[in-house]
């Protein structure tokens, strides 16, 4: 298998045009797999600070109120200028050309290197997970809708790993894909297998966190939230299972969850339904696929995740947090790595991750 590093990559999945989703950051869940979950934090006597979730929840309410006043009740409150909240990504040119990933020739030796696919690769959890597996020598595929963000992610993994190097011969390949589209998901898996090899680990990290009062939640908003956060999880999980079953040598499938996976909060009806549905999917898959040596895990992220977007939009609230009072993407990625390494005699299906200051 030959790997080249001239700035191009294998043909990405064609992205279909369509409206971008809007996502908000709140205490009730993960946005884009990169944001927050909820907590009922109140003023803490011991630290004289509010829990981090309560601080961000209040900041979010104030921000949403201001945006509503500026745009009117019918305006969007969960994203500005098309930005996908929780991913920290500005929508870039949606082109399939000129990607900065590693060019990979068709793979003739499927056993040479293990492969990890991250679907929903954002600047937080997604990038950290891809980096963690790449450092272990996994050929790594990162997929999301926004082509410009994909190029940025590949560059970050290659060049900004805090002194932890990734071998030059480890391919990191971006694939542009709208995971709500069945044909694109099918093609994504086909292309990854053809260029990198059989997929050993698949991580679904797409979020769709929106916050609206129930009576202001339109059918379109509800449907879009579900399509992005749950239906796309079904498509990705199904294709991962198909490839792993066909290979007959097992694998690991990990879904990123949120506090909304286990508890619905006010103003988060669409997101709660979405995340609970994804959790139910993961449970059913685990019971069905476990006997075939396929490990399915669901990770509840019960805390705000430290991303560039969070730092930019909630700086004041974050400055009042105690040290390590926010989920670090690298530490979340370490948990994902450890899940993938568990012996099948002692598999975890669901774990929850939160900072030590998070009330639960």
Order of helices and strands: EHEEHEHEHEHEHEHHHE
Total strands: the figure is: 9
| Average pLDDT score | 79
Which ranges are low-confidence, i.e. pLDDT below 50, for 5 or more consecutive residues?
1-52, 73-99
Strand content: 5-15%
Placed side by side, the strands forming the largest sheet appear as 5-4-3-6-7-8-9
Compact summary:
The chain is an alpha/beta fold and 360 residues long. The chain has 9 helices and 9 strands.
Written description of the protein model:
This protein has 360 residues and is an alpha/beta fold. The chain has 9 helices and 9 strands. The strands form 2 sheets. Strands 5-4-3-6-7-8-9 form a 7-stranded parallel sheet, with helices on both faces. Helix 5 links the parallel strand 6 and strand 7.
């Amino acid at each position: 298998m030959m790997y080249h590093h001239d700035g191009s990559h294998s043909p990405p999945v064609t992205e279909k045009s369509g409206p971008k989703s809007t996502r908000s950051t709140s205490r009730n869940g993960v946005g884009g797999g990169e944001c927050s979950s909820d907590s009922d934090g109140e003023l803490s006597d011991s630290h004289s600070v509010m829990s981090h979730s309560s601080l961000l929840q209040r900041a979010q309410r104030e921000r949403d109120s201001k945006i509503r006043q500026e745009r009117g009740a019918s305006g969007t409150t969960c994203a500005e200028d098309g930005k996908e909240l929780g991913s920290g990504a500005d929508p870039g040119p949606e082109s399939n050309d000129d990607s900065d990933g590693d060019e990979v020739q068709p793979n003739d030796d499927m056993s040479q290197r293990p492969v990890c696919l991250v679907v929903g690769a954002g600047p937080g959890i997604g990038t950290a997970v891809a980096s963690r597996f790449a450092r272990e020598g996994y050929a790594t595929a990162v997929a999301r809708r926004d082509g410009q963000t994909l190029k940025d992610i590949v560059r970050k993994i290659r060049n900004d790993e805090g002194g932890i190097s990734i071998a030059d011969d480890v391919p990191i390949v971006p694939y542009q894909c709208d995971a709500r589209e069945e044909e694109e998901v099918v093609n994504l898996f086909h292309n990854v297998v053809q260029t990198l090899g059989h997929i050993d680990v698949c991580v679904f990290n797409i979020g769709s966190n929106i916050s609206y009062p129930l009576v202001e939640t339109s059918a379109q908003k509800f449907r879009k939230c579900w399509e992005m956060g749950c239906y796309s999880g079904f498509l990705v999980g199904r294709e991962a299972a198909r490839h792993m079953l066909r290979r007959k040598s097992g694998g690991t499938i990990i879904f990123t969850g949120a506090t909304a996976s286990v508890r619905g909060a006010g103003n988060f009806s669409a997101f709660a339904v979405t995340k609970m549905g994804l959790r139910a999917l993961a449970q059913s898959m685990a019971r069905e696929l476990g006997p075939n040596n396929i490990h399915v895990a669901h990770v509840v992220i019960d805390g705000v995740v430290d991303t560039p977007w969070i730092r930019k939009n909630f700086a004041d609230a974050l400055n009042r947090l105690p040290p390590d009072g926010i989920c670090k993407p690298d530490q979340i990625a370490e948990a994902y790595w450890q899940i993938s390494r568990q012996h099948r005699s002692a598999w975890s299906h669901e774990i929850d991750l939160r900072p030590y200051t998070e009330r639960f």
